[in-house]
Write the C-alpha cells for this entry.
Amino acid sequence: MGNNKQRIKKLCLLALLTAASMILSYVESVLPPVFAAVPGIKVGLPNIIVIFILYRMGVSSAATVSFIRIFLTSLLFGNPISLIYSVAGALLSLVVMILLKKADFLSVIGVSVAGGVFHNLGQILTAMLLLGTTAIGYYMIVLAVTGTLAGIFVGLCGAFLIKRC
Amino acid sequence: MQKEKYIGRKITNDIVFIAVLLFFVFLIGMLFLTFGKAGNTVKVTVGQTVFGEYPLEQDRIVEIRTEHSLNLLVIESGRAFIREASCPDGICCDHHPIFRDGESIICLPNQVVVTVIAKAENEIDIVA
C-alpha cells in the first residue's frame, strides 16, 4: 500500500536523522571548551536536526528523535547522571520550542535561541535540584549569552536545511 | 511559497525576544551575585549529604574520598580549589579558586559540590 511505503520512508528518514544528530553530539564533545571558566558549555549542534524535524515533520517526530538521540548517546558516551541532565535540558527546550513555534511570532532563529537558552536553564535547574544548592544560579548569565550565540548559529543552519532540503 | 516565510519579517521579533530574555537572565543572575556577604567557610557536599565545613582562613588539604571517587580540595591563602580528582573530565580541577559567598566548584561525575558560604561567628567549628 502507498501508505505503508510512506511510513517506511519516514521511519528510515528519522533513523538517519537520529544517527546524524548523534554524530553532531559527538563532534561538539570533542570541540575545545568555548568558555573555560564555565564547564559544560555546549554549542548544541544536535538541535539543528531537531529544529529541522520540528519545522518539516512535526512535533512528535522531533520529540522522538531528540529523546532517542539522548538515550543512545548517553548509553554510548555518557553515564546515568549525564542522562538525567540531558533529558531535563532537552525536555524544557523542546516544550519551549514547540510552544513558541505554535505561537508563531518568532522566526526559526528565535525559536532556536530560546531552545538553546532553555536547554541550559533546564540543566542548571536540574543541577540545583540534584545538588541542593542555588549557588550555581549566576552561571546562567554566561550560559544565556553563549546559548543565544549558539542558538543563532544553530538557527541559521536549521533554517538553511528547512529551506533547501 | 510557504517555505519562504521561515525567517523573513519575524527577525525584529527575534531581536526583541532575545533582548528581553537576556535582560531577565542578567537580572536574576545579578541577584544571585550581589546578595551575598563575603564568604568565610568552605562547605563540601557529596550528593545530598554534607561532607564537611572548613574555615577559609586556615590552609588545609581535604581528601574528599568516597568508595568510588576522590577529589583533593585545597584551601590556601583564603581561596579554595580542587587540585586533583578521579573524574574523567577534570573540569573541577580547571576551575579558578573560589572565595566569595555563593561561588562553587562542582564535580558532576563525583557529585561533589564545594561551595563558599558565610557562617555566623559562633557557628564556625572545624569538622575534620
Observations:
- DSSP finds six helices and no strands in chain A.
- Chain A touches chain B through 37 residues (CB under 8 Å).
